[in-house]
């Protein structure tokens, strides 16, 4: 039977990366996606911007919406302090199965909790299920039409506190116009655009960093 692209991405990690070395896992995926098969990881260029924001925030609690194969999960988790926790939501069970193996290959399974399901189901349950009150950092990289409703849901569930930082991928390409309009016009957010390129291409894209003001 034919393999899937996530399966081939995982094979590239297992072939080219060193177990327990997150940087080698990130490098192996970027090499695979740049030279073999494009895939929708945040990528190396936007990834460096994401790294700098994560390092600046130094979060203890992180929520990622949209694990896919675990590329940004590994990038973020590798920068977290020892007591920190990253919860990553993934809707597609096949992608989740691959991501678990990528995260394990990087040796980061103790910092990461991968949860399978939808944001609508899980965002209201996170506090009781995982003993987390609020998130210091949220990375949005799931379905682009869900960024805004899920941000409003996180606000409603009290998952954001004064100073919580949202980082959104793809605000230009494929684009998240309603989300961008909201965080840039709402008095509850201080927003900043970091211009870059769509992963592994020359097209423009960027990350939007939005600080919740409470
Ligand atoms: O469509 C893109 N990304 C969609 C990404 C979607 C991923 O998020 C998961 N998800 C859905 N709901 C949840 C949650 F969390 F709610 F449970 C998680 C989906 O199963 C999928 O793995 C995309 C497309 C391009 N592109 O160039 O076309 C470039 C990119 O960087 C992209 O991220
Ligand atoms: Mg993306």
Short description:
With 214 residues, this protein is α/β, with parallel strands linked by helices.
Catalogue the unreliable spans: none
Strand order of the largest sheet: 3-2-1-4-5-7-6
Query: What letter string, H or E per element, gives the SSE order?
Result: HHHEHEHEHHEHEHHEE
> What is the strand tally?
7
- Ligand set: ligand OZS, magnesium ion
Indicate the overall shape: globular
Radius of gyration: 16 Å
SSE-based structural type: alpha/beta
Summarize the amount of helix as a percent range: 40-55%
Major sheet size, sense and barrel closure: 7 strands, mixed
List descriptors.
single chain, 214 residues, alpha/beta, 10 helices, binds ligand OZS, binds magnesium ion
Question: Can you characterise this structure?
Answer:
The chain is of the alpha/beta class. Helices cover 44% and strands 23% of the residues. The chain is built from ten helices and seven strands. It has helices at 5-16, 22-35, 43-57, 71-77, 93-105, 119-122, 126-130, 147-156, 171-175, 177-185, and strands at residues 61-65, 85-90, 112-116, 135-140, 160-168, 189-197, 204-212. A seven-stranded mixed β-sheet has the order 3-2-1-4-5-7-6, sandwiched between helices. Helix 5 (93-105) links the parallel strand 2 and strand 3 (112-116). Helix 1 crosses helix 2 (22-35) and helix 2 runs antiparallel to helix 4 (71-77). The protein is globular. The termini are far apart. Bound molecules: ligand OZS and magnesium ion.
């Amino acid at each position: 039977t034919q393999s899937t692209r996530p399966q081939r991405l995982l094979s590239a990690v297992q072939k080219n990366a060193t177990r327990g070395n997150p940087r080698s896992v990130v490098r192996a995926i970027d090499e695979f996606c740049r030279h073999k098969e494009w895939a929708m990881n945040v990528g190396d260029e936007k990834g460096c911007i994401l790294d700098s924001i994560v390092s600046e925030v130094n979060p203890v609690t992180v929520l990622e919406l949209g694990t896919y194969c675990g590329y940004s999960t590994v990038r973020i988790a590798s920068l977290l302090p020892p007591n920190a926790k990253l919860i990553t939501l993934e809707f597609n069970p096949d992608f989740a199965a691959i991501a678990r193996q990528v995260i394990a290959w990087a040796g980061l399974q103790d910092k990461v909790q991968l949860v399978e399901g939808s944001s609508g189901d899980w965002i209201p349950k996170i506090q009781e299920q995982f003993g987390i009150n609020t998130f210091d950092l949220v990375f949005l990289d799931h379905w682009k039409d869900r960024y805004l409703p899920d941000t409003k849901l996180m606000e409603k569930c009290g998952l954001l506190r004064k100073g919580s930082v949202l980082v959104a991928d793809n605000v230009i390409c494929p684009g998240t116009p309603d989300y961008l309009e909201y965080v840039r016009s709402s008095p509850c957010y201080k927003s900043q655009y970091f211009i870059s390129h769509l992963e592994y291409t020359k097209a423009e894209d960027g990350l939007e960093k939005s600080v919740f003001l409470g």
